[in-house]
Amino acid sequence: MRMAGISGSGDRLESSSLLGVPVHLADLDQVLQNVESWIQQRDRCHWIYHANSHGIMEAHKRAEFMEVLKSADLSLVDGKVTNWFVSRRVSRAVPHVRAADLLLGFCRIANSKGYTNFFYGDTEEVLSLMSEKLLQQFPALKIVGAYSPPFRELATEEDAQITAMINQANPDVLWVGLGLPKQENWIFAHLGKLEVPVIAAVGVSFRFICGKADPPPRWLSNAGLEWLWRVLHEPRRLWHRAFVNGPQFIGLSLLELSGLKKFK
């Protein structure tokens, strides 16, 4: 475990790693403080990634994706199993910050302080429903844009137009919900193009918030069985992740925890 300076924030947060992927031991309040600091400074793009077993295994298997994750300004512990292994590595309980909780927590602050939001990803229906739900809960929330990109590779001209659209909207936070690893790769590729102080990769949070995907009951998440809930709801897409990558992640993490193997 080490102390990590979070770029541009002036705060220092403890950090560790799991299978070579950095993780910051920050709770929701600390993350939100950093987000506000980055917005006020507006010196460059800072981005936030949620470290779960799926993403960590992707990084373990692909060196180029490991470099993507290592570029994140904040890498938050997400998922009960990941949380368990990180907690054992640092010998104490560490915060578990879900992507949807971060989005809602920031919207609560933005509702009173006027921070602006742009939502990128998923379908037009999901974005419309989510915006409606958020405005019902936070009437003063400023949403300066929402865009559902085509579900295909973008042409260079299209990508430039989308980047210009986001920059013109000038949001304080850009929320990206493209799914892992697409969203992290997209953020990494656009860090030098976007004029946004904060970008957060939030996975399926848009669908959770708008009600298109049922979030697991809190007791199930607390029991570490959130993965089972999601597999039952999306078996075709998630079975390999749960029943192949999942056991591999546990096995490798146990080797690292026991000191039998080290990962950088």
Structure description:
- It is built from twelve helices and nine strands.
- The protein has helices spanning 28-41, 53-61, 63-70, 80-90, 99-113, 124-137, 156-169, 182-190, 205-210, 218-222, 226-233, 235-258, and strands spanning 2-5, 12-18, 21-24, 46-51, 74-77, 116-121, 142-147, 173-177, 198-201.
- The protein is globular, with a radius of gyration of 18 Å.
- It folds into two domains: 1-21 and 49-96 and 225-264, no CATH class; 98-215, Response regulator (Rossmann fold, 3-Layer(aba) Sandwich), CATH 3.40.50.2300.
- Helix 8 (182-190) links the parallel strand 8 (173-177) and strand 9.
- The strands form two sheets. It has a six-stranded parallel β-sheet, sandwiched between helices. It has a three-stranded antiparallel β-sheet with strand order 1-2-3, with helices on both faces.
- Helix 2 packs across helix 3, helix 4 (80-90) runs parallel beside helix 12 (235-258) and helix 11 (226-233) packs antiparallel against helix 12 (235-258).
- Residues 1-11 have low confidence and may be disordered.
- With 264 residues, the chain is of the alpha/beta class.
- Helix content is 52%, strand content 17%.
